[in-house]
Amino acid sequence: MMKNTPTLSLRVPEPSGRPGDAPDFSHLQFDPAGAVTRPEVSTAPYDMRDHAFRLVRVLDDEGQAVGPWDPKLDPETMRRGLKAMILTRAFDERMHRAHRQGKTSFYMKCTGEEAIAVAQGMILSREDMGFPTYRQQGLLIARGYPLASMMNQIYSNAEDPIKGRQLPIMYSAKDYGFFTISGNLGTQVPQAVGWAMASAYKGDDKIAISWIGDGATAEGDFHNALTFASVYRAPVILNVVNNQWAISSFMGIAGGLDTTFAAKAIGYGLPALRVDGNDFLAVWAATQWAEERARTNQGATVIELFTYRGAPHSTSDDPSRYRPGDEAEKWPLGDPIERLKQHLIVLGEWSDEQQVEAEKDAVEQVRAAGKESEAIGTLGQSRPSVKTMFEEVYATEDWRLIEQRREVGV
């Protein structure tokens, strides 16, 4: 050992609070709403590096939309967005209860993150392809995908559109711009980049968008995808949903303490935006900016959506074992539904009474879909035909499949 040098030690990042502690967000520094500049879409990534460390915000504490990122949406569009978020939350609540009632084996809620998928699902066309994780159910709901069909897939019943081939919440709906969810973390990012490259190679006009959690940015797939996106200027939007927590480890384990996740784009020569993910208008504006860049052959954009996972990671998780019990309630960027609601009220385009009615209507929509789906069957009560195991894999069955089907009797 060299003289006069300290003994080496290994740093293991720790979150700011554990069970029993008071929530502490004093380490977070946010720009005031409206303070971050909006660069021209043609701005070189090098010249907008600071946007990887700032936080794009539109809605202030009084519910006003301020600053250059205000997308100036008409009230009807915002009402549609609010209702879609309310419906998404109502759907989550019912399906979480369904798991507790033994009607399905697994479920994952997106509580607190509804603005992300809903806003982005409303902006992009169904013909563009989304490569989601398991918390973008709002993408389907915002686009009007039948709730009963989502439930059929969750229950793996006889009308399951995926025919029992996926975990309960791993939807697939090509006609709604929703690529099949993969259970392997990170794989959707290179898939999205590859799809976008193919679209450009064919001279098409469709773009791709993907979502990845903060923890999955530590996967090699994420970095491989950024290389291809940069080199080939793929028309793709790459979202990092930083919701602070994986199933039991916090975002610092993936490198979120020393820098931002948006900053990972800088080393690849990609533009980066860091956005308040609980601000529907900020998400909308940032996505609109990245969409224009992609559609005008200026390449990919990385967007870090700064939010908070308010619910358990999944029905297999108990967050009270690793974080303060009331941490979600104290999240300084608030609740996305409440914030958009307040903005519409400030504009005179909504009211508390309308909010109550919208919530009741959402519950009724979900209840009606639940009755329709459960009449077909919940987990184990009905299931897709066994013969579907042998279908839609090969264009022409070879002798092995024919023999296997004969043995099964289908």
Could you please describe the fold and organization of this structure?
The protein has about 400 residues and is an alpha/beta fold. The protein has one domain (about 45-315, about 325-380): Thiamin diphosphate (ThDP)-binding fold, Pyr/PP domains (Rossmann fold, 3-Layer(aba) Sandwich), CATH 3.40.50. About 35% of the residues lie in helices and about 5% in strands. It has helices spanning about 75-100, 115-125, 135-140, 145-155, 190-200, 220-230, 280-295, 335-345, 350-375, 400-410, and strands at about 130, 210-215, 235-240, 270-275, 300-305. The protein has a 5-stranded parallel sheet, sandwiched between helices. Helix 7 (about 280-295) links the parallel strand 4 and strand 5 (about 300-305). The longest helix is centred in the first third of the chain and has 26 residues, at about 75-100.
